[in-house]
Amino acid sequence: MNRFTPPRLARSVLPELRSHLLSPAWREPRIGIVHLGIGNFHRAHQALFTEEAMIAAGGDWGICGVTLQGDVAKRDALMAQDGLYSIVERGMEGERVTVVRALREVLAMPHDRAALFARLADPHVRIVSLTVTEKGYCRDAKAGDADFGHPGVMHDLAYPERPVTVPGILTAALRMRRDSGNPLTVLSCDNLAHNGAALRRVVCSFARAVDPGLADWIETHVAFPSTMVDRIVPATTAADLVSARAALGYEDRAPVACEPFRQWVVEDHFPAGRPAWDRVGAQLVGDVTPFELAKLRMLNATHSTIAYLSMLAGIETVDAAIANPDMHRLIHALMTSEIAPTLNVPLSFDLFAYRDALLERYANPALKHRCAQIAMDGSQKIPLRLLGTLSKRIATRQSFSRLAFAVAAWMQFLLGRTDAGVPYEIHDPLADRLQSLAASAGGSPDALVRVLLDVHEVFPTELARSASLRQTLVEALQALRKGTLHAIAAYA
Ligand code: CS2
User: Where is the Mannitol dehydrogenase C-terminal domain (predicted)?
Assistant: First the structure.
């Protein structure tokens, strides 16, 4: 083993890293974007587009990234290397390592609240963007308003000047903007349908509970454009640190690995200005809905399907799962026969080419995207990814057995053991409740379906009442209990 640790990545060494920069020419920008949720996805996606846009067209769009979970270690790791990090793109043609410079500052909430609010008040900051995952929105599943039973939301209602949640922080920020007259655009980049409208709803409902006049002002004056974001970005592994170090000759403790593919479709509504993302491959459009729904219901839905089935079968990564011919046939059939027919996309959008491209992306052997990562937060993801399609198929009396098979896999997954009896942990905001409900079914598929369909945060009442859904889920569970691989072959 090589025990030599090279020096740490720093802005001062960038001249030596020219071959790993998008362009050697670079003017350090002022901060113009505050990004909530400085996880791997943002760093491999929007931050890269923003860096490219600044190279192409200038502008002060440096990024201040915020961890809302108080991840001080991440803040310190990034700040110790001046906000720099590398993106390790892994594709069929090998590896490409690029150092990104757009991130200028990292803050950890709640520790750095004063610094965050100074940024949010700064008129140079014109966009607040977010990748906080589905649960970060603190939404009430039914109404779409802020969830006033959520402990964080309750805290923020009691102490609106010391917020910890997304609706609380944005409401406080927008109050400052109203008072100072400096515009700010709020950009959700999470995998929610109509993510801009969804975020507006959460923020306005929260603001209304604090100050109705402010809520009215936000409703009429603040832009919440919607976006569809896409790039597969697994959690960082020790191998990624080694790749970055080997390529750079410098130590990077915060690299991000990802696939070569990336796509960004953005609703072009930025009254306070935006980077020239349109110059660097982002699609700026009037309506992102067809793209958002196609992505959520084709990509994310099949991702979740692969994840739950693989957890049961004991398969660790997406590429290993899709290398199984039955799994490949199942996912192909699910998209072709049950998902694609429900999507309204413009004629120019070829859903079958999209399907084929997804299957190829899943097969990327260099990515090692872990099924356990995708399986997290199912209670938040299943409704957005699978249940909308399922409702549509049921309403139009079309077959839905593969969609139900996917939902049944999630139900069986909640029992916490692979087919071989190996236990795994369940990460979900509702984990305790879901696991005890699943256990209460005492091994009966019928009872498991009944108790879980009653979880109204996940299943809309109408769907939960569907006798045909209930029946189809029970059959799928019976098949799964004879062995997941066997069931996959049967449903393929
Ligand atoms: C994945 C997504 O973890 C998950 O739930 O389905 O993160 C997926 O990789 C991205 O949305 C791809 O753009």
Answer: 287-480
